[in-house]
Design a protein that fits this description.
The complex is a heterodimer of chains A (151) and B (486). Chain A is an all-alpha fold and 151 residues long. In chain A, 63% of the residues lie in helices and 0% in strands. Chain A contains four helices and no strands. Chain B has 486 residues and is mainly α. Helices cover 75% and strands 2% of the residues of chain B. Chain B is built from 20 helices and two strands. In chain B, strands 1-2 form a two-stranded antiparallel sheet. The longest helix of chain B is centred in the first third of the chain and has 32 residues. Classes of the chains: A mainly alpha (151), B mainly alpha (486). At the A-B interface, helix 1, helix 2, helix 3 and helix 4 of A face helix 5, helix 6, helix 9 and helix 12 of B.
Chain lengths: 151, 486
């Protein structure tokens, strides 16, 4: 009974971390927070992967105590998690250095502002009119006055 | 025979040596990359001729699969290795003499793409895929403008999210079957992965790998990156990297997820991609973004093709992929001088008739004008779709026809614009394309014409490749045969 419950909790935790990470990426507007959310999601995926080799009350692989062969933890996912952690760190370092560059160019880490400046730059380079922003009404019409506006 | 490993090792080694070597001797640094790629191409051709159409498996480190990691060498993986090396050589950054970092990134891309094509293990595929990602983030940011940094950051975050999803999918596959060797999985999959959980693993991996393959919901990075990056990089990403993601998905479909729902998921995402991409391309106002959106649309068509069950779908999809790999980089290279608004291109074709003529040829092939290879590839797709009984495939047929109409509309609008006499109010267009871009485009166009002339034998050979790749039993037997090479 006990091992099943712990396993369920661990799986829920791993999937929960991925969900928290994805929510963070979708919901935050600050670039640094988005990268941190990506790290959290990666941690969740790594936990899920290492859990796939998890055995209750098993020993670490390689060290066998002799005597009756005890159950060992599956070493393959552990090797894979190590690899994927290393890859994750590399990608995070790259993300942070790109963030620094983007900050150097635009002096902001708000992704809405970054997006706006990037679109403006690209449109300026291509010589096309700016794409219509979703937050601005078409043709610069004034927003409909709210009720009780006094006008 | 295991010299095939050198196609991964040599470019990887060169990628690490080039930056240091360039400091000591700039000339050697400039020559090392192309020489390595040329040698790797020779090696690939030699192996290809030597294997006589029979696939084989290389056990790396001497451990036999499923314990060890293996490379699987068949005509499909060799084809993609060859195309990777040739495309990287054609789109080599010849002109950036002061930028050894770009050499290193291009070599890294080539090495990891070869590894991805040859790999016979799901986790190895993930690792090589991440290496490709890192190389392409670097290349996308290589323009060093603020817009390119912001665009590649967006690409990185989406791609990072994708790899998290793919890793979750891989974890589920491992949980269900206890192995990640593709050959062993191909035997275990019908029992262990033919479940809702297996299907969710496929969906996760599809979304993860689909980021590079410009699959529908995860392709929002495409227009910005292609608009901000140099034409060479756009050509590499749209032509080569997207096809490698498609290759991974094809291997998964053939070996692991044969169930009908997997094919249908891919078909629906492909349909949505086709519609959204072509409509966005129709509305696009500048050249690079138009090409980027049309690339999304064409990748959608390729996904539709691969969702047809059996080797018919594989054959049609391969033909479409090869055609897109040939045409898209050429169009991006032409767009190097013509980047900018479409309205400002009036008279550009008259100013440089050679480039204009090649643009017409490539556009005609992309739309699918009868004698050109593009028609042949789309014809294969039509016959494949029409042979399916299910209603959704008939809908797909209609959507692909509609996409051709839209494609013809926006491409011919550009062609009309190119060949209209420039008015007084139009922007002056420089006609100088640079001999390098023009030469490469000319080479690609010549290949296109050669493909048209030798359509018969080429088609027969491609069908043979597709039949070989569509056989999971052959895959299993090859990897686990006693004669597997150490």
């Amino acid at each position: 009974m006990m091992p099943i419950e712990i396993g369920t909790v661990l799986y829920a935790g791993a999937i929960g971390l991925v969900v928290i990470g994805i929510a963070g990426i979708v919901l935050s507007h600050h670039l640094f927070r988005i990268i941190l959310a990506l790290v959290i999601a990666e941690a969740g995926a790594n936990l899920l992967l290492v859990l796939s080799g998890f055995r209750w009350e098993a020993i670490a692989p390689i060290i066998s105590g002799g005597g009756a062969t005890p159950t060992m933890v599956d070493p393959v996912p552990q090797a894979m998690v190590l690899t994927s952690i290393v890859i994750g760190v590399g990608v995070q370092a790259l993300a942070l250095s790109l963030t620094l560059r983007a900050y150097g160019a635009y002096k902001t880490l708000d992704i809405r502002e970054l997006q706006r400046r990037m679109s403006a730059d690209l449109a300026g380079e291509a010589g096309t009119p700016l794409p219509l922003s979703l937050e601005e009404p078409v043709g610069g019409r004034p927003l409909p006055a709210a009720e009780g506006d006094g006008r | 025979m295991n010299t095939i490993v050198l196609t991964v090792v040599l470019p990887l080694l060169a990628a690490f040596v080039v930056p240091a070597l360039s400091r000591v001797s700039p000339l050697l640094g400039r020559l090392l990359g192309p020489l390595t790629l040329a040698y790797a191409i020779l090696l690939t051709l030699q192996i290809w001729l030597g294997m006589e159409g029979k696939p084989y498996s290389v056990a790396l480190g001497g451990f036999q699969p499923p314990l060890g990691i293996n490379f699987y060498v068949d005509q499909l993986s060799l084809l993609f290795t060859f195309l990777t090396l040739v495309t990287s050589l054609l789109l080599w950054p010849w002109r950036n003499e002061t930028e050894p970092r770009q050499y290193a990134l291009t070599l890294l891309l080539a090495a990891s793409a070869c590894g991805l094509a040859l790999s016979g293990d799901l986790f190895n595929i993930y690792v090589f895929y991440e290496l490709i990602s890192v190389a392409s983030f670097g290349l996308a940011a290589a323009t060093r403008s603020g817009a390119s940094f912001a665009a590649s950051l967006r690409y990185l975050i989406l791609s990072g999210l994708g790899s998290v999803l793919a890793l979750c999918g891989i974890a589920i596959v491992y949980l269900q079957s206890g192995t990640l060797n593709l050959a062993q999985l191909s035997q275990l999959a019908p029992e262990t992965l033919n479940t809702p959980l297996g299907m969710s693993a496929f969906a996760l991996i599809l979304l993860g790998v689909g980021v590079k393959g410009e699959l529908f919901p995860v392709n929002s990075w495409v227009p910005e990156v292609y608009a901000a990056a140099s034409s060479r990089v756009s050509g590499l990403l749209a032509g080569l990297v997207s096809k490698l993601a498609v290759l991974v998905i094809v291997r998964l479909l053939v070996l692991l997820f044969q169930q009908e729902s997997a094919l249908q998921l891919m078909l629906i995402l492909g349909l949505l991609g086709t519609i959204s991409g072509e409509l966005a391309a129709w509305r696009a106002k500048d050249m690079n973004r138009m090409l980027a959106f049309s690339s999304i649309g064409q990748l959608g068509v390729i996904f539709i093709a691969f969702s047809i069950p059996g080797e018919t779908g594989l054959f049609a999809g391969l033909a479409l992929s090869l055609h897109h790999l040939l045409v898209k980089p050429a169009l991006f290279l032409l767009a190097e001088r013509w980047r900018g608004s479409l309205a400002g291109l009036r008279g550009a074709g008259l100013a440089s008739p050679v480039a204009g003529g090649m643009f017409v040829l490539l556009a005609l092939s992309l739309v699918g004008m009868p004698p050109l290879p593009g028609f042949w590839a789309k014809f294969l797709l039509f016959t494949g779709l029409a042979a399916q009984q299910s209603v959704i495939y008939q809908v797909a047929l209609g959507v692909v026809l509609l996409s051709i109409v839209i494609e013809a509309n926006y491409l011919f609008r550009v062609v009309m614009n190119l060949f209209q006499p420039a008015g007084d109010n139009s922007v002056a267009v420089t006609s100088d394309h640079g001999w390098l871009n023009l030469g490469t485009t000319f080479l690609l166009s010549a290949l296109l014409i050669a493909g048209m002339l030798f359509m018969g034998p080429l088609g027969a050979w491609l069908e043979e490749v597709a039949i070989q790749a569509a056989d999971p039993v052959l895959y299993f037997d090859t990897v686990f045969s006693v004669s597997a090479i150490h």
